[in-house]
Amino acid sequence: xxxxxxxxxxxxxxxxxxxxxxxxxxxxxxxxxxxxxxxxxxxxxxxxxxxxxxxxxxxxxxxxxxxxxxxxxxxxxxxxxxxxxxxxxxxxxxxxxxxxxxxxxxxxxxxxxxxxxxxxxxxxxxxxxxxxxxxxxxxxxxxxxxxxxxxxx
Length: 153
Fold this sequence. Notes:
Elements: H1 3-9, E1 27-30, E2 33-39, E3 42-43, E4 46-47, H2 59-80, E5 88-99, H3 107-122, E6 129-135, E7 144-152
Parallel strand pairs: 5-6
Antiparallel strand pairs: 1-2, 2-7, 3-4, 5-7
Helix pairs in contact: 2-3
């Protein structure tokens, strides 16, 4: 089953990738690695989850935001790679940034929204190393941002 077929089975369609909000490229390819710049929880080009975890954003909303971020990571890869998602061998690493106050401690649980989806889509090739960091704010008041390192075939 192709990755696009697996996405369809999960009820996911890839959006048009968002344009960068500053001076950077969405995907940088070096040899057999692709680095995807941080993606925000956007739907149809508009942020779907803004605010801070533990204040205006619930744990469930945070997980949804992380899931949306991963979908946007995949949209960027699909647009940047010659054969789209078929060029992905494995997800090597995800980095998650969670906007939250200092007392919030459930960062890893929020980031599971992205990690669980990666495994659901890619199986064992979706199991990855990960860092999850709490930050006081993110661009455009996003609640979550996710970046990725992917090995290519």
